[in-house]
Design goal:
The protein contains nine helices and ten strands. It has 241 residues and is α/β, with parallel strands linked by helices. The strands form two sheets. A six-stranded mixed β-sheet has the order 6-7-8-3-9-10, with helices on both faces. A four-stranded antiparallel β-sheet has the order 2-1-4-5, with helices on one face. Strand 4 and strand 5 form a beta hairpin. Helix 4 crosses helix 5. The mean pLDDT is 92. The structure holds adenosine-5'-diphosphate (ADP) and magnesium ion (MG). The site of adenosine-5'-diphosphate (ADP) has 11 residues, from strand 2 and helix 1. One of its GO terms (biological process) is L-isoleucine import across plasma membrane.
Length: 241
């Protein structure tokens, strides 16, 4: 039996004035799959995540979650239905503790948790990302990778069914990168459905079941990482960057 489709985009289009950032984009994401959304800078990947998460309204097209249209729902409602994302530039509250930042994810997410339950859940998510010892630190004192870990823990605390990671591995040194890839692999093995926007080729090769490649807002290729990364049109799109 084929795995069910979790998320579908049909003709998704986003214009910013005269610029078409996302152009008539179609793709499906299957349950438990890691789908790589790749392409050169400015090709529309982050905007696509913004459309899915409801941070930006589509200009036209439809987005469905398990067959139900979510195209026009507000971002909080889409989050409540289990779609959560990290941002390319980490967004945390630096004067709050690590635990409080993660607890905010537990309170506002897909399964709302309160009080002790939210705190215990937030601690479990900090363990998942290997940061339980820093629970009482202020986010402002953390290293870059640790702020990324906190952000991921905050997103995981909302119990997402679909996890959207926007260049979560960017800026990590080689050791941190290995740890980061292992962490995403663990999330995959737990059966999460993930859209991975990523430039790190090793991560794409080792984590993605399938990739959709974007260039100038449009889909130019789709297939396994090996297939798309050897596709002449994809190579041209990256080199032209
Ligand atoms: P990627 O994530 O693939 O690097 P983006 O989705 O961030 O690409 O951007 C796609 C295009 O849309 C770029 O040309 C970018 O400058 C433009 N863009 C993105 N967000 C906005 C915005 N809020 N207003 C105007 N233009 C935008
Ligand atoms: Mg981006």
């Amino acid at each position: 039996m084929n795995a069910p489709t979790v998320l579908s985009l049909r003709g998704a289009t986003k214009r910013f004035g005269g610029l078409v950032a996302v152009s008539d984009l179609d793709f499906d994401v299957t349950e438990h799959e890691v789908m790589g959304l790749i392409g050169p800078n400015g090709s529309g990947k982050s905007t696509t995540l913004n459309l899915i998460s409801g941070a930006l309204p589509v200009t036209s097209g439809t987005i469905t979650l398990r067959g139900t249209p979510i195209t026009t729902l507000p971002a909080q409602e889409i989050a409540r239905r289990g779609v959560a994302r990290t941002f390319q530039l980490v967004r945390l509250l630096p004067s709050m503790t690590v635990l409080d930042n993660v607890r905010a994810g537990a309170v506002f997410g897909h399964r709302r948790r309160w009080g002790h339950e939210a705190e215990a859940h937030a601690m479990r998510m900090l363990e998942t990302v290997g940061l339980q010892r820093r629970a009482q630190a202020h986010v402002g004192e953390l290293t870059y990778i640790d702020t990324k870990r906190v952000e991921l823990a905050r997103v995981l605390a909302s119990d997402p069914k679909v996890l959207l990671l926007d260049e979560w591995l960017a800026g990590l040194n080689p050791t941190e990168l290995e740890e980061g890839i292992a962490l995403i692999r663990r999330l995959r093995d737990e059966g999460r459905t993930i859209i991975l926007v990523e430039h790190v080729m090793d991560a794409i090769r080792s984590l993605c079941d399938r990739c959709v490649v974007m260039s100038s807002g449009a889909r130019i290729a789709e297939g396994t990482p090996a297939e798309v990364l050897s596709d002449p049109e994809v190579i041209r799109a990256y080199l032209g960057d």
